Amino acid sequence: MKEIQISILKGLTEKELEEIRQSGYIRTASYKKExxxxxxxxxxxxxxxxxSGSVNIENIDLxxxxxxxxxxPEGHVFAETYALCQVPMMxxxxxxxxxxxxxxxxxRLMDSENQEHSWYQKLSFHLLQVSLHKNLAxxxxxxxxxxKSVRGRVxxxxxxxxxxxxxxxxxxxxxxQQMADYLNLERSALSKELGRMRNDxxxxxxxxxxxxxxxxx
Length: 217
Hints:
alpha+beta
């Protein structure tokens, strides 16, 4: 049987997915770029899986300052912790581009009455994996924003992206404002520093494409 190869559903057969669908635990929805999908204060029972496009996890404080906490690409999961813990969301989820989302009612799926189903253990295992990867992603952002200098934050972020891609030429998932929000910087400060880094021979860039150069010892 064909297996579903997206994140938390990896390893489920078409028959198992159909069981979930027939039980009413699954639905899909489409959103246009920058549409609010989930908002701060909302209590949710569903986690989301990005089938196409991408979403951004954002936080806006009482004074209107916005931070992009994470980028969720195709095949990845969001809102699973809030759905499982049933606590009000502390973040907003927005469509980073036109996207299609598959929602799973994880509270109903993980109810003890479903333990007899073959998909129950698979979902439980993948939920644990998702949680661990989210912890790594959060740690990575903390690492990127720990430097006090603009250059330090930019170099840490671009270096980590280069390591993940295995290449000195990388395409980041953010435009310039989103990159500034992710690194907790002013856009003007980021743009000026990128210009200085280009002049210093550290990198070249065009929009969200970056070519990094190793510095001479």
